[in-house]
Amino acid sequence: YASHEYQKRLTTYGMRGSMSHKGNGYDNACIESFHSILKKELVYLETFSTRAEAKKRIFEYIACFYNGKRIHSSIGYVTPNQCERTYRKTA
Q1: Which of 23, 40, 44, 75 meets the CB 3.0–4.6 Å disulfide criterion with 83?
Q2: Looking at the 3D structure of the chain, how many domains does it have?
Q3: Is the separation of the CB atoms in 65 and 72 below 8 Å?
């Protein structure tokens, strides 16, 4: 987030980055929570033979299971895909 290229892109779009001091998980609480779930539900349970295999399985986990089948309490006990479809119908 601190790279010159990234900061220039933010400026181009009239945006301002939000960063706190190193190690402050509260700035990124949502993604930190996601990473924790990803590790507990996939990464720590499997052994990957190659980096390509790991990338493929992580993609499948996110695209198929996490977004398509795993319900989330924070969005009314529906899947992210269901939540998005509902949002798009009402927007």
Answers
A1: 75
A2: 2
A3: no
